[in-house]
Design goal:
Layout lengths: L10 H11 L7 H19 L4 H13 L5
């Protein structure tokens, strides 16, 4: 059985995420967060380690999508 933990994000960001995922295959903010985190972790595992530039690129992409401030 999979155990879960809670991740907190600002409510205004949660509203933006909900608006963003409308009409997509993501059924909730949690689904999107899991997808994004898995993607980052998988990329990290494949490459052995994220460089500072790669981390910044991911952060910039998330910022551009409105997930980071």
């Amino acid at each position: 059985m999979t155990e879960y933990t809670t991740v907190s994000i600002p409510k205004d960001l949660a509203v933006r995420v909900e608006e963003t995922i409308e009409g997509t295959s993501f059924s909730s903010t949690s689904d999107l967060v899991r997808f994004l985190l898995r993607s980052i972790v998988i990329q990290h595992q494949r490459e052995g380690q994220l460089s500072e530039a790669e981390f910044e690129e991911i952060a910039n992409q998330l910022r551009d999508l409105g997930y980071l401030q």
